[in-house]
Specification:
62% helix, alpha/beta, 461 residues, Glycerol-3-phosphate (1)-acyltransferase, 8 strands
Amino acid sequence: MDPNLNTGRWSWKYAVVKFFTSIAFHLFYRKVHIYGRENIPEGGGLIFAANHQNALMDALAVLLTNKYQPVYLARADLFRNPFIARVLHFLKIMPVYRIRDGVGNMSQNEDTFRSTAAVLAGGGSIGIMPEGNHGDKKRLRTLKKGIFRIAFRADEIYVGDLDVKIVPVGLDFSDTSGVFEELAVNYGEPLSVSDYRELYATHPQKGINSMREDLAKSLSSLMINVRDEHHYDKDYLLMVTGSAALRKQFGKGISGTCSNFLISKTFSQSMYEFFDENPEKVQKLRELGDELLRLTENYGISPQALENNTGHNPVYSFVKQVLCYPLFLAGFALHIFPYAVIRIALKKLKDPQFISSFKFALGFLLIPLNYVLLAVLFSSFLPVSITIPMIIAMPFIGYYAYRCRRSSRALKEELYFRRLCKNESSHGRNISILRSRITEILAPVAERTRARLQDQTARVK
């Protein structure tokens, strides 16, 4: 019996693992914004298609924000070890073969396609990253054909009995490598494979291309898509600079609806509309963006410093840092074991896109172990009445210690940025002038974005 056929069935054991993983996931991220969950159809037969920005965390972001137990595909070489293969099947992961696994093995993908079709027909769901590879840039890459072949194959086998739907999912991480960051998961309206059935039957390639174009368009509208690859850094800086006033206005959120993700997503869409409508202004804007990018890189100013410069009171932040320092020292001392192990492991990591995944997985295992070891240690020297409150307080102390460390770095960068902008040197003045000129040219974009955000807020209310 093909073990993949059991992989798609609902599992209570998997549900237990998912529950505890969800708790850890929502502790790992400071905020998880979920939009459009009402777009997820009932009844199964779904393929969740998300942009691929942050390695394994992308799959978890989809898995842990809906009620389904989607089956994912992973490269086949991970299944060579029988024990690991059993674990992966339990985790609802199927093998998919690549050319590098050997041309002769590519035919085995046919078995995977049949298995995924069976999963969908049984009311299950599939999770696929149609870009095929991950990257931390906030842009949509070309979609691969595999997801559409799976969808049409399932439709062919179970025609009339199954209406396969592809649910587009836009993902955005405020920082793909950080802890206690913000995550946005944006579900869009599903694409029904039956709508493309006739075209696919007469011309398969046109059917695939039509669905690929529609899915790409949908995903693009659900994520922050700085679409021009060749001018990505400049365009991203233009987006950050031009939307700064909007983040100051909407940053706190109106009824919690206007996160930085929504502001940046809407602004980037409006900015490229403006580029298409005013091509004569694009070159000038990018020249200004290129100059600002050069200055920020020369002086070590990150886009985050520009993004965070929205009117915070640095004096208040500095006083808070001083008062929190003893708490930082206590939290660091209590968590030195998992911190040191994770740091050592990350130094051996070759792909930086897996930093967040490693932090999550190792933290999930090491932090509870750390608390157990400290509980044993404290109970050997202290009474239970003191040990128990200390163990309960440790996670909160650790959280605030991390926040203090993070806030300290952000404050240092922001103060440096402000001092540079106020400096009488030509470079400091140039940064302020460039930002003002960019903001002025992009004013129509800001107005269009503001109107869309207000309209969206009104509809939510």
